[in-house]
Design brief:
Length: 403
């Protein structure tokens, strides 16, 4: 038996490690976030409940969102060993041009509510990281200001078809003049979904000062100070609104739109056209036949029709049906680099993430968005290496088994 003795300081000293004291609370908060779910927890603490729930929530019972997350959680990744992965390359081609990573920043509405830096913070990160970024029609920074903030970013404009077609034509013309590369036409919002968290929270644009929100301000004073002391919310596509999100969508958007209206879009927009919100193989064929340069399999993050198809489950069949004629992208439920890699292996050209970077934005503004991009990129690279894959084009169905 070994004899016990008290350690000498000379033996303990090499083991003592003190972290430098970080005085910047944002830097301290972000440095402790190692996953997107860590950023989500930080966002929940930083933002008012109604703002967090607007980002985090989905429609009705939120079944669609849970099913999408569950499928990502339960799939099996199947690695190949004894492969040279000393240099993993995450670059891919999207709409005929290179992208540094196989994910894009999806269009999100009312982004300056998450953090006062809003879309300008997102597009700056996109430019630095080589991530394409789609500005939403319902964004809270103008088309021109986003273009000025991110001159080096690949910028796309997301369009909802309005009842006022002249307004839609004006938006497309402004986006083209400002250098936006592609149009992302979202087709799954003929009417607003029933986002019950928003209803229960009394969420409105702009936030109303009620007894509830004033009480919440005491818990999130920094957010309210930022909102009230920075420029008033400016929408990319309209001057102002005073009401709920659902009322705004139902007031503006055209429920009569059909496939024939793509001809109108094409008559105005001469760049790449992406159709977002496709949820069946038949519709993927229809929009591809109509000339879509890419289709996005998406149920709007579970925020429209509850119990809608899970995009990842649909992906292999759509790739088989139209993948030789158009790019097939995927969103809904992506919260990790492993999720991104699984979608690529099943045939997606790229993926779109929304909540992931919004959690970062709420947690720490531009630095939080950058942290989200860093986390996803690192996870993509590590997952590819552990699968025995050095380049995105080497990923295939053999690397994923769906339950």
């Amino acid at each position: 038996m070994s004899a016990r003795q008290l350690p000498r300081w000379s033996e303990l000293a090499p083991l003592v490690r003190f972290r430098p004291l970080e005085l910047d609370p944002t830097a301290r908060r972000l440095s402790s976030a190692h996953t997107i779910l860590d950023l989500r927890r930080a966002a929940r603490r930083r933002a008012p409940r109604s703002v967090f729930d607007y980002t985090d929530g989905a429609a009705e019972a939120e079944i669609s969102l849970r099913r999408a997350r569950r499928l990502f959680r339960d799939l099996e990744l199947q690695p190949a060993v004894l492969r040279d992965v000393s240099g993993v390359d995450t670059t891919t081609s999207v709409l005929g041009s290179p992208a540094a990573v196989p994910f894009t920043f999806a269009p999100t509405g009312f982004t300056r509510l998450m953090h006062h830096e809003g879309e300008e913070a997102v597009v700056r990160v996109a430019g630095r990281r080589g991530v394409p970024y789609a500005l939403s029609t319902m964004g809270t920074t103008s088309i021109e200001d986003v273009a000025a903030a991110g001159p080096d970013a690949r910028k796309w404009f997301q369009l909802y078809v309005w009842k006022d077609r002249a307004a839609g034509e004006d938006l497309m013309a402004r986006a083209r003049a400002a250098g936006y590369e592609a149009l992302v036409l979202t087709v799954d919002v003929p009417v607003a979904g029933a986002r019950l968290r928003d209803v229960r929270n009394g969420f409105s644009i702009p936030p109303a000062l009620t007894a509830r929100t004033i009480a919440d301000a005491a818990l999130h004073p920094r957010w309210w100070v930022d909102l009230l002391t920075t420029a008033p919310l400016q929408f990319a596509s309209l001057s102002s609104w005073d009401g709920t999100v659902a009322e705004l969508l139902d007031e503006l958007f055209d429920p009569t739109m059909t496939l024939a209206d793509l001809e109108w879009v094409r008559s105005v927009w001469d760049g790449p056209l992406v159709i977002k919100g496709v949820q069946t193989v038949d519709d993927a064929r229809r929009v591809t036949d109509a000339g879509a340069d890419a289709v996005v399999l998406s149920n709007h993050g579970g925020r429209q029709l509850d119990r809608a198809p899970v995009p990842l489950r649909l992906l292999p069949d759509v790739v088989d049906a139209v993948g030789d004629r158009t790019e097939v992208w995927l969103d809904t439920g992506i919260l990790s680099g492993a999720d991104v890699v699984a979608a690529l292996a099943l045939g997606a050209t790229t993926t779109m993430v929304g909540r992931a970077y919004l959690y970062g934005l709420m947690a720490g503004g531009e630095r939080g968005v950058d942290r989200a991009a860093e986390i996803l990129t690192r996870e993509v690279r590590r997952t590819m290496a552990l699968l025995g894959v050095a380049r995105v084009e080497e990923l295939g169905p053999q690397h994923v088994c769906l339950p």
